[in-house]
Amino acid sequence: xxxxxxxxxGLSQQTLNLVRQAVxxxxxxxxxxxxxxxxxxxxxxNLPDIIISDLKMRDGDGLxxxxxxxxxxxxxxxxxxxxxxxxxEDATELLAIKSGARKVVPNNLQPAEFLQIIxxxxxxxxxxxxxxxxxxxx
Length: 138
Hints:
single chain; two-stranded antiparallel ribbon; about 20% strand
């Protein structure tokens, strides 16, 4: 079976630590990307099975990143989840954040709780993912 790849976008060390604690025993591949440009590059390169993003990023923000992902034919099917230091208090802000994200969760969850949230998305992605043709290096 294929090893799931998780792209962790954003500057939150707490989110990265949470993901590591939640999946380290499972051998999942974690690809951190603190900058939006790097996250987009790595999303294309690795076609992750889930994208977990913060709102704060170098050279961009989580909402812009989500828009870029949703406009890309190859990336739009990847489940996108926001994992935030602080949950939005304003309904409009929450709606803006959810406008393409499958879920929005705080990053102060227990690792087991977090794993229960992300595993169905990863399983669904692995089941539905279409293998792309191998790219030959030019």
